[in-house]
């Protein structure tokens, strides 16, 4: 009997030097360096460049890359007019998917699939993704987009474009850490989708649009939004244990808990937990964090023996919420960070490209013949 790897679980289709995950021990590394060290010592800009080039950059290389990002943050005015005309009330991931596709129309290199072009377009996509998301957010609220500033970090500039006010250094750094934790995560659904598109020798913008489409699904990118819905439903910390126990007794899913790969604590969740506590106290919204503490204890007590623990989505939503970001924009922010991983993975795969063409086990009818429509019952 043929064994079918449902969801492609356990199927190896390529090699990578970018990201390593050991789900049993809760290990995540980029270029062999633990995610905890990246979060503590690095920045979104540095990790993005490290993944694109497959090595830690020198100071001069990082400075040049950072300058390149800052110089490419603005998007065409015509595209901003199109974004303003989007229907009100649409999901921001719909808008982002469409805006990135539109962005390709203004790039003269868009159809060039050479290594040089893919690298250059990657820089522009990383730089402009935040501008698009901030513009979508503001125009959906009936406000004018805020032009990017070249004197702010990538994280700080995004918060500035979102709110129209300059964030504090601490807010910028906290958001930067959240981006670092989301930059890349192996062969997840959106990264695999981007690679599958690139394997046909399609262009870099098409790979990004494909990845956004995959990320849009609630089984991939929308979990932190669902966590916030759950926290609002619970309301207060004293109701959390009973709420979660009732869900578990009914065999219902608890959002932000469990992971396809990790059978121990997601290492990113451990980093975010500490920052979530700090931000919650700083911003005066500690009740969310207090609810999460109760949920985590309840879940670990009941499910840790099954290898089920909180994942990165468990705490990320509270960090974003406490920074004043609407929950509908949590998934677009995921894309804001992951665009670097998508581009790096696509560029790596394309250096030894092979068209992805899996097969399926046929389980349908055999020996059938066409029946004229008038004779069908």
UniProtKB/TrEMBL annotation:
Q: Which keywords appear in this protein's UniProt record, sorted alphabetically?
A: Transferase, Tricarboxylic acid cycle
Asked if the keyword RNA-binding belongs to this entry, the reply reads: no
The catalysed reaction is: oxaloacetate + acetyl-CoA + H2O = citrate + CoA + H(+)
The active site consists of: 259, 313
Q: In which pathway does it act?
A: Carbohydrate metabolism; tricarboxylic acid cycle
Tell me the domain of life.
Bacteria
The text of the family note is: Belongs to the citrate synthase family.
What this protein is called in its record is: Citrate synthase
Q: Which organism is it from?
A: Deinococcus aquiradiocola
Q: Source taxonomy lineage?
A: Bacteria, Thermotogati, Deinococcota, Deinococci, Deinococcales
Q: Name the gene that codes for it.
A: gltA
């Amino acid at each position: 009997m043929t064994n079918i790897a449902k969801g492609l679980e356990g199927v190896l289709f390529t090699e990578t030097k970018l990201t390593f995950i050991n789900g049993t021990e809760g290990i995540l590394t980029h270029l062999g360096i633990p995610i905890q060290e990246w979060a503590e010592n690095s920045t979104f800009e540095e990790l993005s460049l490290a993944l694109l080039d497959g090595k830690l950059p020198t100071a001069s290389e990082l400075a040049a890359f950072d300058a390149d990002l800052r110089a490419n943050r603005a998007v065409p005015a015509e595209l901003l007019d199109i974004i303003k005309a989007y229907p009100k009330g649409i999901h921001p991931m719909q808008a982002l998917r469409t805006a990135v596709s539109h962005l390709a129309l203004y790039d003269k290199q868009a159809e060039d699939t050479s290594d040089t072009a893919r690298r250059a377009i990657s820089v522009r996509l990383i730089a402009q993704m935040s501008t698009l998301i901030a513009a979508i957010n503001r125009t959906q609220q009936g406000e004018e987009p805020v032009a990017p500033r070249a004197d702010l970090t990538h994280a700080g500039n995004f918060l500035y474009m979102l709110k129209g006010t300059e964030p504090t250094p601490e807010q910028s750094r906290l958001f930067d850490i959240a981006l670092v934790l989301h930059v890349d995560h192996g062969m997840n659904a959106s990264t695999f989708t981007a690679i599958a598109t690139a394997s046909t020798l399609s262009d870099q913008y098409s790979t990004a649009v494909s990845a956004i489409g995959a990320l849009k699904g609630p089984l991939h990118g929308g979990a932190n939004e669902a966590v916030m819905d759950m926290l609002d439903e619970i309301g207060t910390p004293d109701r959390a244990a009973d709420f979660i126990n009732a869900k578990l007794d009914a065999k219902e899913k608890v959002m932000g808990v469990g992971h396809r790969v990790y059978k121990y604590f997601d290492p990113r969740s451990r980093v975010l937990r500490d920052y979530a506590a700090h931000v919650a106290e700083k911003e005066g919204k500690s009740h969310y964090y207090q609810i999460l503490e109760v949920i985590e204890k309840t879940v670990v007590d009941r499910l840790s023996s099954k290898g089920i623990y909180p994942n990165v989505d468990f705490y990320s939503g509270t960090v974003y919420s406490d920074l004043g970001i609407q929950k509908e924009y949590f998934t677009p922010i995921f894309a804001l960070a992951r665009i670097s991983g998508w581009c790096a993975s696509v560029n790596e795969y394309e250096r030894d490209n092979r068209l992805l063409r899996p097969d399926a086990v046929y389980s349908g009818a055999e020996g059938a013949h066409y029946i004229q429509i008038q004779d069908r019952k």
